[in-house]
Amino acid sequence: MPLLANRVLELTMRLGVVRFGLLIAAFEILFSMLVTVVLRGIVVGELHWVDYLRPVLFGLIIAPWLALFFTYLIKQLGESRDKLAQAHSKQQALNAELKRKVSELNREIDERHNAEAQKQQAIRYLQREVAERRDTQNKLRDQAVQLRSLIDSSPDLIFYRNKDGVFSGCNLAYEQLVNLSEADLIGKTPEDVYEDQIAAQVRVTDYKVLNDLESLTYEQWMTYPDGRKAMFEFRKVPFNDARGNLQGLFGFGRDITERKQAANALEQAARDKTTFISTISHELRTPLNGIVGLSRIMRDSELNDEQHDFINTIYLSAVTLGNIFNDIIDLDKLEREQLEVAPMPLHITELIADVRAVAALMCRDKKLYFDYQQRGDLPAVVEVDGTRLRQVLWNLLGNAVKFTQQGQVGLSLDISPAKNGKISIEFRVSDTGVGIPKAELDKIFAMYYQVSGQGKTKAVGTGIGLSVSQRLSQAMGGSINVTSEEGKGSCFTVSLTLPVLSEDQLPDATDIELPALHVLLVEDIELNVVVARSVLENLGCTVDVAMNGTDALRMAQEDDYDVFFLDIQLPDMTGFDIAESLMNDPNQRLRETPRIALTANVIRDKQEYLNKGMQDAVSKPIDVGLLTMALARAFGCVDEPVLSAPAPLLDAPSGQEESVLDTNFVGQMHETLGSELFAKSIDMFEQLMPDYVETIHNQLLSGDDKAVAEIAHKVKGAAGSVGLQRVQKLASQAQDLDHPAWEQNIQEWAEGIAKYYPLDVETLRQQLVTLDS
Ligand code: ADP
């Protein structure tokens, strides 16, 4: 709207319509008057009052209309202006809205741009990811193929089972063992794949692995489809998923048949070695025993001093030689960890006198001075294994002499006063010989160790003596130590604490009064016969000699003997065979005549002899005292209990079935079941046994003692159920892992079971026939 109009409108609004109308009228009157006056003045040149009145009248008449017209106009104008203003503000609002929308739109567009950019980025990322994944998958596939070929190329068995014991996979080696492809194997259980016994073991070991969540190793014989048997070492390991949940187990099996065979061959070689050593030492001992025995007999006969000395030297040399054999046997025992000591009451002063005599002789030969010192008093009797103590001291003195070229060898005893019934003695063997370098002092007790650079002396020994001496000292509860200075000499100290006994605790053979006995001496070696015969005759016995088993058994029937002395190794049979025959003889007198073994072996465990039908055993070379004691025990001349005879392996032939069979039980079973059913039970037992025997054998090879005991338990039950007493007894021992000598005997028991069950089944069948008739 033009500015003027606006002003007019504002003025109208301010003055109101009436006042504005009057203003307009006044203005119009004035304007008309002005115009009239000007026009009349110019045109007419004169003015009349009418000229003034007319414009006023006109003005008055026209003014209201004019005012009305203007008012209306102005009002219209005002409304128009308001509308305009309204329209304007609407327009503005619309504009603002529009602006907002536009900016919103812009933002949205921006966002969309961003989103698009992000989308593009995400797509790129995804593409990269997809590529990477494809890569990874390819790598994984490659790795899986590699892993598979690795697993398949393994000569070891690999298999996995889930926790329900169902196969989930295996490698090629396993496929070949079970003769099933992996696809066929998956979903199968051990029972579907293995024979019952193996499946049972698999189940047991699986259970252990999954239950204890620990790996487990065991050995098991397996059979290939072509019938080839192989010993496997199985290792089972539990496995979890990524979240640590147990999934099942991995199994690995390694064919250790060759290793086992090698180990068995080694064991066999060790056994052969032991047999060889004992055979050789037996062969050597036999003539040596003759020398020891005869030289001792000669020494006690009428001789001049020189002869006595010579014979004594022969005697002591032979005894030393015997000790070397003992060393060799000890070495073998050391290797088998069977070195033992047997403490017995002993006159220690006599032992020391013996040792001094030997040492003095050895020194005299080498022109060395032998010195003996003793601090403190020796008790009369102590408890010690005299043979072993003598062996240790002789070995130390022997070394001292060997490694000393001049000067002296000393033996000194430091005896501390007895305390709590025990005495401590330090036996010190010193020399002025080559000595031992400091660096070697620790090593000389090792097996076969010899100090180098000790001149000629080193070739003489074996390097065994000190090692054996140390073990023996330790076995006697003591110790052995050495101090030495190179070039000056050495000093070995054996410290022992020994129980002190009273004199009367020492069985004194010389006081024993033996009856005049009629003796059958069974011995095949002339020299030994001479020695034994003279010893026995000195004891007042009359002696008949049989040089072989057949003669012995014949002579036993022909004459009344009070006692049999039985050598073990005879040309036609063993002393144990003779003992068994005598034990089973129908003649009660023969069965009851004492049987004493004469053995060239060291008696490790007398029970072994008792188990094989002897009442006692005396080792060669014969010790008069020990032989006297054995006879005294057999004839009740001493309080010492007579060693009880073992239960015979077999009874007299008439009652043979009794120890093999539980005859009472067999009789009852026969009565209850009847012959046919009982025979069926025996058949079943016979069918079961080969498996049991093989499993025991395999488990023994694998060293699984528990499994051996378990099978032995089954054998015990099975044998018991048909009355096979002997097999039952053997199995009962084999099942008892707590048996103190299980380890040492299990092989024998297992062999006994295998050997006796077919024989005993035969006896049982015969018994059934007898019962039937
Ligand atoms: P051997 O005497 O048969 O060689 P030992 O086991 O008795 O075997 O001794 C082992 C080694 O210890 C000897 O070879 C020797 O080197 C050393 N030895 C032992 N006693 C003495 C000693 N009295 N003086 C010097 N060296 C010794």
TrEMBL record:
EC number(s) recorded for this UniProt protein: 2.7.13.3
SMART domains: HATPase_c (SM00387), HisKA (SM00388), HPT (SM00073), PAS (SM00091), REC (SM00448)
Predominant place of localization: membrane
Start and end residues of each Response regulatory domain: 518-635
Membrane topology: Multi-pass membrane protein
PROSITE patterns membership: HIS_KIN, HPT, PAC, PAS, RESPONSE_REGULATORY
Residue numbers of 4-aspartylphosphate PTMs: D567
UniProt entry keywords in alphabetical sequence: ATP-binding, Cell inner membrane, Cell membrane, Coiled coil, Kinase, Membrane, Nucleotide-binding, Phosphoprotein, Transcription, Transcription regulation, Transferase, Transmembrane, Transmembrane helix, Two-component regulatory system
Phosphohistidine PTM sites in chain numbering: H713
Enzyme class label: transferase
Reactions that this protein is recorded to catalyse: ATP + protein L-histidine = ADP + protein N-phospho-L-histidine
Domain PAS, residue spans: 143-195
Superkingdom to which the source organism belongs: Bacteria
PAC domain location: 216-268
Membrane spanning residue stretches: 20-43, 55-74
InterPro entries: ArcB_TM_sf, CheY-like_superfamily, HATPase_C_sf, HATPase_dom, His_kinase_dom, HisK_dim/P_dom, HisK_dim/P_sf, HKR_ArcB_TM
Subcellular location: Cell inner membrane
The protein's name: Aerobic respiration control sensor protein
Source organism (scientific name): Neiella holothuriorum
